[in-house]
Specification:
- The complex is a heterodimer of chains A (269) and B (554).
- Chain A is α+β, with helices and mostly antiparallel strands and 269 residues long.
- Chain A is built from nine helices and seven strands.
- Chain A has a seven-stranded antiparallel beta sheet, sandwiched between helices.
- In chain A, helix 7 crosses helix 8.
- The longest helix of chain B is centred in the middle third of the chain and has 20 residues.
- The radius of gyration of chain B is 28 Å and the shape is globular.
- The chains are: A alpha+beta (269), B alpha+beta (554).
- At the A-B interface, helix 1, helix 2, helix 3, strand 1 and strand 2 of A face strand 12, helix 12, helix 13, helix 14 and helix 18 of B.
Chain lengths: 269, 554
């Protein structure tokens, strides 16, 4: 059994573990002579960390119960309009300057990831922080599967400074709650409850990172390197090559968060 | 009402009350350019966010046509493949018909409009404060008595020429009869030619299916609701509109019933049955399906409706999967057996399940003769309490070790080139992930399944300990007999004593034994089908579509 990751490093550990497992699949497929599928690897990375939604887990998480939790948690919120979608519920400011403005293509994200049973406590803090901290919107999973995925609560900000400030405030406020944790986002605080992302040109941060890594894994899995036979690299070696590629493309592979370099670069795989 | 024609041959049109507007106030991460919000004027239902493509498809229904014709017309215009579009869009159109955006072309209901009253209006002894709800020609306001401003009241304003007068007089008569016992106390009635105004005390509470969160609390709430209805029927009153939104649980656990406009009163003819919703009973559903007159409501039909609500309180889900087009949903009500508690995420409580199954019999003669008898049966069932299981910590620790053994570089990692081992590892992890809600096991299940080329292990050999174990567990879930669970536990121990197969295996050896112990610790979950494959497939489809159509993810 592995040792528990150090405080502040839980999300990086989750992310590295997910890459290693995807690399194991890529290596296994390549060893049987098949091409590794970049889309499948991307999907495997992107969905990593979801809590299975079924059985007992679904008992208290039907949509009406979630809706009631969200209604209570946002009861005092003013200045936002609520939108109920099929899978999520969103609160958008009345004067959201990003809306419909193609010039604003980069969005600074703060993820908040409580365990599903602790959603109510987190939503209350998120709503207060959104109102006080200048978020232009936030959204929360509105279904059982929505709140069982790690990225169940996301706040959106126009500036990195606002997002950082809100993330630090939430990390302190929610430090007593057990965290679920969002892989491939930059951890803020010690528990993994709060993390950061940075959408670029309208593309989701996590999807960008997972596509970058999935493509690199698929590319390296079938490649002959240093006299190796195709498909002979083990999962650890493949992981190292993949992370090196991603690092060269501007991703901070130590934290998986939007570092200054990543924010200035465009992470297109 | 739905007639005998199936949805395939029915003409649909875009509702005259539909409003389709661009989605300018949604951030880029929620919507992609061209997305629209579609909703119904005056409806309480939230608008839907639709893609530009779906919105274009919807536009074809400005002229009535069948769903298939609409899809064909859209494909002719867009050049899309009709077959694949039919596959992708048919469900969306059915969902939009359930939302009311698409409606049968013969629907004649006028579009809803805005509220007819405003805050601060004074009506009789009350002043209006906040609009709580508006449904067609009825508005419900939170208000206060002008002579006593601290006293909050509910003001129900009905303005409906055809039946408003009868609704108001019926509700007033029912509330007078109950006189505050299990329903809000009536303060004043102001009749008019098209309905009138009912002013009642304001009660704070939550819809009853949302009131209790823990298992014992659900049982208590269900019992209180049943007792409330038994008392109502004992007075000769039928509620006539049974659904969780009309049954409030107050903070101290009292159950109050709302909306008696469709009630049946002593000495009167039976009121009309509800014409839709989960509480629809099989006789009404059959009549609606066949296009014949729906028989009036009677106490045994209301027993069925009440049982659907009790099922939802206990399980947190509906007694049938009615997420279907109306004709199909009606057929399910008339034909399909109620789901098992386990299938709906409910407790292991065969005694309580038997009570609800009798109340949900398709044949009214086989239900309880009255709610008093059902209450007695329910109380007897409570003597054998529902079990809300927890996974013991030592089992959870064993599971963590087993999951670690199946990780990259773990004890079983050397078997990764053997497809059989990979399939068994995936099978173990999938089941364990669901039983324990473990994301790590779920991720590893995906990994091993990919290594197995998508395969999962087949079922156990008939007569093997694993097969006998499954039989014993099934028997326990059906009967609730402790002996069946004891047999299952004995067989789980037998699996542990079997020779180690030397590979990950779900039917014998240590992994099989651990899985069996987990099933015994929480046996009601054993009926719950795995949702992992669907989740993974959905995620892959979702990512593929994002890559094709641009940003839409979190």
């Amino acid at each position: 059994m592995g040792t528990a990751p150090r405080p502040g490093r839980q999300l990086a550990a989750l992310s590295h573990r997910a890459v290693l497992r995807a690399a194991a699949v890529a290596a296994g497929v390549a060893a049987r002579g098949g091409p590794a599928d970049a889309d499948a690897l991307t999907a495997m990375l992107y969905t990593a960390g979801s809590i299975p939604c079924g059985g007992r887990a679904g008992l208290d998480h039907d949509e009406r119960r979630i809706d009631a939790v969200l209604t209570r948690g946002t009861a005092g919120l003013t200045g936002f309009r609520r939108h109920r979608g099929d899978y999520w519920q969103a609160w958008v400011t009345e004067n959201d300057r990003a809306a419909g403005d193609p010039a604003i293509s980069h969005v600074h994200k703060v993820y908040v990831s409580p365990l599903p049973d602790r959603l109510a406590a987190a939503v209350d803090a998120v709503a207060r922080t959104a109102a006080d901290g200048g978020a232009h919107s936030f959204k929360v999973g509105g279904t059982a599967s929505g709140i069982h995925r790690p990225d169940k609560i996301v706040l959106y900000f126009d500036t990195a400074a606002d997002a950082d400030a809100a993330a630090h405030r939430l990390a302190v406020q929610l430090s007593g709650l057990p965290a679920h944790g969002v892989p491939f986002t930059g951890q803020v605080g010690e528990t993994g409850m709060v993390s950061r992302g940075f959408d670029q040109s309208g593309l989701s941060w996590r999807l960008l990172v997972c596509r970058l890594l999935g493509s690199a894994l698929a590319r390296h899995a079938g490649r002959t390197e240093g006299g190796e036979e195709p498909g002979s690299a083990d999962a650890a070696a493949l992981t190292a090559r993949c992370l090196a590629d991603a690092g060269a493309a501007g991703l901070d592979t130590r934290t998986f968060g939007p570092s200054a370099l990543a924010e200035s670069a465009v992470l297109v795989p | 009402m739905t007639g005998p024609a199936g949805i395939e041959s029915r003409l649909f049109r875009l509702s005259p009350a539909a409003e389709i507007v661009p989605a300018p106030d949604i951030p880029a991460s929620f919507a992609i350019p061209g997305d629209v919000l579609a909703g119904l004027r005056g409806s309480r239902q939230p608008p839907c966010l639709l893609s530009a493509d779906t919105a274009a498809l919807l536009e074809h229904f400005r002229t009535p046509m069948t769903l298939a014709d609409g899809i064909h017309a859209h494909c002719r215009e867009s050049g899309a493949d009709p077959l694949s579009t039919l596959d992708e869009c048919f469900g969306v159109l059915v969902a939009l018909s359930r939302h009311g955006l698409l409606e049968p072309a013969d629907t004649s209901a006028p579009p809803p409009d805005g509220p007819r009253h405003a805050a601060a209006d004074v009506i009789g002894p009350a002043a209006l404060d906040t609009l709580v709800r508006k449904v067609r020609d009825t508005e419900i306001w939170l208000g206060h008595l002008t002579a006593e401003p601290s006293r909050r009241v509910a003001v129900k304003i009905v303005d409906e020429p055809a039946s408003g007068r009868r609704l108001v007089s019926t509700e007033a008569a029912a509330l007078r009869l109950l006189d505050g016992d299990g329903a809000p106390r009536l303060n004043a009635v102001l009749p008019s030619d098209t309905g009138g105004v009912l002013i009642t005390e304001w009660v704070e509470g939550r819809p009853v299916d949302l009131a209790a969160t823990d298992g014992p609390g659900r049982c208590r709430t269900a019992r209180r609701v049943l007792a409330r209805y038994a008392a109502l029927h004992a007075l000769g009153v039928l509620h006539g509109d049974v659904h969780p939104g009309n049954i409030l649980a107050t903070a101290d656990g009292e159950i109050l019933l709302l909306d008696f406009g469709l009630a049946g009163l002593p000495g009167q003819d039976g009121p009309p049955r509800p014409a839709g919703g989960e509480a629809l009973d099989p006789q009404a559903a059959g009549a609606l399906r066949d296009g014949i007159a729906v028989p009036p409501l009677d106490p045994v039909a209301e027993q069925y409706a009440l049982a659907t609500v009790l099922f939802r309180i206990l399980c947190g889900a509906g007694y049938l999967d009615l997420d279907a087009e109306r004709g199909d949903a009606l057929r399910r009500i008339t034909d399909d057996r109620p789901r098992r508690f386990a299938q709906a995420g409910g407790p292991c409580w065969p005694a309580g399940e038997r009570v609800l199954r009798r109340a949900l019999r398709k044949d009214p003669k086989r239900r309880y003769p009255d709610l008093a008898a059902m209450l007695v049966a329910f109380d007897c069932a409570l003597q054998r309490p529902a079990r809300w299981f927890e996974v013991p910590e030592e089992l959870a620790a064993d599971l963590r070790r087993a999951v670690a053994d199946l990780d990259v570089g773990g004890r079983w990692w050397g078997h990764r080139a053997d497809p059989d081992s990979c399939a068994h590892a995936a099978g173990f992890l999938r089941r364990a992930a669901l039983l324990a809600g473990d994301p790590d096991a779920a991720d590893l299940a995906a990994m091993w399944r990919a290594l197995a080329g998508g395969r999962l292990p087949s079922g156990p050999q008939p007569g093997s300990p694993a097969a006998r174990f499954e039989g014993a567990l099934r028997r326990y879930r059906r009967t609730g007999r402790a002996a069946a669970l004891a047999t299952a536990r004995r067989l789980a121990a037998e699996l542990a004593r079997a020779p180690d197969p030397g590979m990950p295996h779900v039917h014998t050896g240590p992994l099989a034994a651990l899985l069996a112990s987990l099933e015994c610790a929480d046996p009601w979950q054993a009926d719950v089908p795995s949702s992992l494959p669907a989740q993974t497939a959905a995620a892959r489809r979702s990512i593929a579509s994002r890559q094709a159509s641009g940003p839409r993810s979190r």
